[in-house]
Structures are given as structure tokens and as C-alpha cells.
Amino acid sequence: MGENILIFPLAFIFGSIIGSFLNVLIYRIPRGKSALKPAFSFCPSCGNKIKWYDNIPIFSYFLLKGRCRYCKSQISLRYPLIEVLTGSASVISFIKAGISFDYIFIFIFLSLMIVITFIDIDFKIIPDELNLTGFLTGIFYAYLRTDFSVIDAIIGAVTGAGILFSIAYFYLKLRGIEGLGMGDVKMMAFVGSYLGWFGSLFTIFIGSFIGAVVGITGAYLSKSEKKGRFEIPFGPFLALSATIYLFFGDTIKNWYLGF
């Protein structure tokens, strides 16, 4: 236990560094920019290259007092928050799996959930490259797992994507408007490849419930005249419920099935 406690800070530091890269993905991908080129960070306001000492996760934000060194434009507090969130994701991945292949894939899952969540909040889209990356890593992970097969991953992906596609299809037919985007459907293929069929069902049910509560509350509080068309992104709620199942899935499934 003592050795693990010593590793926690290292896991957090590693995660926060990855979080800095996730900030790049969140900014660039939905804007159609390359995630790798240019290979340096730059200020979105003035375009100046950010020096390495101004790009230290979490600390640099406070050292610069939340402003660009060159143009003094405000830097969103979201940047260090995502770095803290990703650092924490690394720690809880380590707590669950230790130093193992499981840690790597669990951390990949959580990292993609973070990117998907913030892009969906900002743009109400879930880019295909994120869902495809998640699905492929889920299938590859299934080859390495002892508790889960590739067949389980495929069934989970088909279950998740199939159910959400059916809901989206019938909603469109009945109301004549799109209630769910295909990004959400593809996201469930990714989620299902990690969590299996039961995890897919849990994610959709709990995600829908939380989303409905938030949506109804938001519509009620909204000052818009179009309360009936109050829109919220579904991806963050799927991400939250999938993360809950990732860590507590066995307990949830055993409780539900009465074992």
C-alpha cells in the first residue's frame, strides 16, 4: 500500500501531461485542425507559440495569472481543470488496475470520455475519429482480457449502437426532427466494445435518465419561447454513466441479476 501511495503523484503528473494534450484535441479536432501539426501549442488569440515553461500543466496557468504572456488575453480556466480531471482519471485508473495493460486501456477510455464530453458541450458533435479510436482500442483490449472476449465486445457494440440507432430512427419518424445525432450512436459502439451488452444497456438507461432530468430542468428554467426544443448534448451523460459502470459494473450487474 505504501508503494502505491508513492506512485499516486506520478500517476497524477502523467495524467495531467496527457490532459494538456487532450486540451489540444478538444480545441483542434472540432475546428478541423490537425491534432499533430503544428507540433507546438499556440495562443488561439494571437497565434504566438507557447514556450515550454509556459505550458507546464496546471502550474503555468497560475504563474501566468490566467493570461497569455504575449497578448494578455484571458486563458479559460477550463484548461487547468481538464488537466486536473485527466490527472485524477489516471490515479483512479491506477487504483482500479495497478501497473498493467488494464490501466492503459482504462485510462484511454476515460481520456476519450473527457474529450468527447467537452467537444459535445461546445459543438454538440462527437467526431468520428474519437469514436473509431475508442472502438478499435476496445476490440484490441478484448484480446488481452481474461474476463471479456472479442465476441463480448462486438455484442456490446452492436447492442449499444443498435438500441440508440432505433431510438433515433423512430424519434425522427414520429416527430420529424432529429432527437439524437449519429455521433451518439457511434459512441455507444465504442462504449459497448469496452462494457459489453449489459454495460451498454446501463449506460443508455442511466444516461437517458440523467439527461432527461437535466433537460426538463433546463427547459423549465429556460427563458426561450421554444421550451419544447431545448437542446442539450447527450454525450456527456453517456460518458458519465459509462464511467460509473466501468468502475462499479460487476457490483451493479450482480445486484441487478440477484446473484
Which structural class best describes the helix and strand composition? mainly alpha
Low-confidence parts: none
CA-CA gap between termini: 31 Å
Q: What proportion of the residues is helical, as a percent range?
A: 55-70%
Largest sheet: none
Q: What is the H/E order? A: HHHHHHHH
The total count of helices amounts to 8
Shape: globular
Tell me the Rg in angstroms. Answer: 20 Å
Mean pLDDT rating: 90
Strand content of the residues, in percent? under 5%
Q: Number of DSSP strands? A: 0
Report on the architecture of this protein:
The structure is a single chain. With 259 residues, this protein is mostly helical. It has a domain at 147-259. The chain is built from eight helices and no strands. Helix 1 packs across helix 3 (78-97) and helix 5 runs antiparallel to helix 6 (150-175). The longest helix is centred in the C-terminal third of the chain and has 40 residues, at 182-221. The radius of gyration is 20 Å and the shape is globular. The mean pLDDT is 90.
Give the tags:
mainly alpha, 259 residues, 0% strand
Write the topology of this structure:
Blueprint: H1 2-28, H2 59-63, H3 78-97, H4 101-123, H5 128-144, H6 150-175, H7 182-221, H8 235-257
